[in-house]
Structures are given as structure tokens and as C-alpha cells.
# Entry
Amino acid sequence: MASQPSVAVVIPAFRVAPTIAGVLARIPADVGAIVVVDDASPDNLQEVLAGVRDRRVVVIRHDTNRGVGGAMKTGFRKALELGAEVIVKVDGDGQMDPGLVHWFVDPIASGDADFTKGNRFDDLSVIRQMPLVRRAGNLGLSFLVKLASGYWGLFDPCNGFIAIRAAVVRKMNLDRLSDRYFLEISLLCEAYFARAVLADIPMQPVYAGATSSLNPLGSFFSFAPRLVQRSFYRVFMSYFMRDFNVVSVFLTAGIPLVVFGAVWSAYHWMHTYQTNIPATTGTVMVGMLPIVLGFQLLLEALVLDVGNEPKRSR
# Structure
């Protein structure tokens, strides 16, 4: 990592006393600072950290548990205070290999990305080993995250191994980040408004064969309402508050057309059902044409939104 920017690793720590020392020992020597946020861990974490002889380690302790997101907000602020140019999140449970830090920092250092994120599913053999239900849950969750965040090229949305340019963090509204396990997804959503360029980093999970604590199918149903809300917020802010462009026009025309066609068709279908009098061809067309036209406009808006993902101009 020669000639790399100043790097700080932030570790949110909760119930990781047995593994934290090993994680710290494997962090590359050229990382400038390591911020460990003890999120009111009830184990002997402080005792373990006191025995670590690494001058780079800065320990911050929360009096009450704030969740992984709350710990990362504290870590982000401390890393910025220490002058870091790139901030890397590594979990303290040993399921991420700290030796891969340079994989995440290099694309940022070279200017190819502002935000890098691990992708455990780049290898098709890993996907084939996943149960069908888990695979479906991950696909559904990934699509909702793409819609909510605007990063249509990402996969493995819940992967917590990330690196981000400090300048992007300064632009972000940290208060909008989730305090719990929604952190990584909310971080993506906020990075979009900072126009951060995202890059997926292929990686293998350290826990090879172990069961992840985050079930994509369960997460899909748990996160879906928040992701839908985030999607509406992103679209409104991107195409009606911060800008008004052709996507805005397509949405403004397409949504009312689909709603009108659906309501009209539903009303006349019910009328036909109750009276047993078939609707005329004209009545059917009045309902179908707005639906078809509106759907085409919304589909085109989606295509243009995919093209609006933050990227480097070449």
C-alpha cells in the first residue's frame, strides 16, 4: 500500500472479546489508525483491549449499546478527527480478513471509486451452494436495495466489509444512518446523494461453511418497508427536489396514467361482474391504453435511472 492515502480502520465491537485481538493483529502495518468502538460490550472486551500493544489503536467506549450503526457513527467521526482520508469498516468477530484492507483501499486511492464494498457472491460456486430459499431472499433483497440506493450494479448488499473516502463521509448526513443492522444499506442510500462512485470487491467469507447471522429471506421481509420508503425518498429527492429532468416527466405522466387505467378497469370489471353485462370494446380500451402507455413511461424512467448511477466521467 505504498503511496496510499491515510487509512483508518473502524471496528464496531460488541461481544467480540475472544476474537478482537486476532483481528487487530492482522490489520496491515501501514494502516495509520485503528478505532475500536466498544458498544457497551458486556464481556471482558476492555480487559482484552488493555493488553493490546499497538499504538495505532484508539478505544472509545459507549455507556449504552447503540447498535452497529451507532458505533460506526462514533467511529466515522473519530476517524475524521484523526485526519483519515479513507475509512475502512472491519467487524471484530473475525469473519472478515483484515489482510484484504488494501483490496478495498486501492480503487479509492487510484481514483476509480469513492466507496468499495465486499461481494461474497462473485464466485458462482458460492451461489450454487446456497439453499434456493436463501438465494431467492438475497436476490429479492438485492433488488430492493438497488431501487432504494440507486446503485444498480451492486450485489451482496448486507456485506459489512466496506471502505469509503473521508470526503464522501463529510458530505453525508450521518444522522440518517441506521443505528442497527440496516447500517450498510442506509450507508449506500446516503452515499448516492453524495454521488459516490461504488465498486464491488470480490472476496471470500472467512467463516467458510458457517451459517451467517443475517438471513437474506428474513431480512427481505424485515427491511422491505424501510427500503420501499427509502426508494420513494430517493426518487423524490433526485427527480423532483434536486432536479427536474426527463425522468421526472416520465414519472409525472406515467404514474397517473397507470393509476387511472387500473381504477377505470377495476371499476368496470366490478360493474360487469355485478350486472353480468359485458363491457364494450371502447370501455376496455380506455382502461388498457393508459396502463400500457404509463407502464412504458415508467419502464423508460427506470432505464434512465439505472444510467444515472454515480460513475466516473472518462
